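Rotation project, supervised by the postdoc (A.L.). Task for the rotation student: set up a whole-complex structure prediction and record inputs and outputs verbatim in this book. Inputs entered:
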Amino acid sequence: DAGVTQSPTHLIKTRGQQVTLRCSPKSGHDTVSWYQQALGQGPQFIFQYYEEEERQRGNFPDRFSGHQFPNYSSELNVNALLLGDSALYLCASRRRGAQGYTFGSGTRLTVV
Amino acid sequence: QQPVQSPQAVILREGEDAVINCSSSKALYSVHWYRQKHGEAPVFLMILLKGGEQKGHEKISASFNEKKQQSSLYLTASQLSYSGTYFCGTERQAGTALIFGKGTTLSVSS
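Outputs recorded:
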């Protein structure tokens, strides 16, 4: 049974560019959350999607946006990239009402 | 609001015990515990729901004091495989965002 799949695994972008990260949740999971993890820090909550709607959002600017598709997969878009956006982006999924989240291995984004 | 974890780091020898604490200033629905090894994704360990129950499996267990909004993770007779960074995550209401603490790094040596 495949877990959470994220793509790409690594990405290098130039300041000012735009990026799209993708996530396929674990089979049977309908809720997807995105996190940003800087080196040596805990995951910071970006937003959560359920039934194709953004249900909750963390303290991130509007440059960060997302989408959830009918098959529960999700995308994270970041516009006008800043050097400070360099981080590991984690996608986590679970079935609503269930217990723990399953995390993907993340996308390592480097902005130069 | 981000939960506060303590201590920041723990160094153990195999067989020793450790306790990691997680506290919140807000009322919680649940507390999650995850372990992340270097270069890997966080892995779910267990969830504590309000009600103060204690859960665990083998030598890793946890408790949740609803009155204090505080959870503790207990690692007994530590093994080398326990090394990693432990994060608590808190949920204010069912189905809402899981907010993580800054983590506690555990190093177990032989």
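Student's summary: Chain A touches chain B at residues 4, 31, 33, 35, 41-45, 48, 50, 55-56, 58, 90, 92, 96-97, 99-106 (CB under 8 Å).
Supervisor addendum: The first strand of chain A starts at residue 5 and ends at 7.
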